[in-house]
Amino acid sequence: MKTLESTIEEILDLAAAHFQLQKGALTADDDFFEKLGIDSLKALDLLTQLERHFRIELPDYEMQGASNVRSLAERIHARL
Length: 80
Fold this sequence. Notes:
By secondary structure, the protein is mainly α. The chain is 65% helix and 0% strand. It has five helices and no strands.
């Protein structure tokens, strides 16, 4: 069974790879829209990648309501 912390780490790793960041450039409590300067289209692109990785379906509004990695991880973790 995955822990919330392991889910957070996987999201951080995927986001870093997706946005070509160094590992550690993004933390669990960063507002990724602000920190990464992404728009909703780029966020949906990341959401698609996360859904594939975790093999879940996450409605678009869930991504919009999650402003940091931790809150997004909680929503993903609840579906695992």
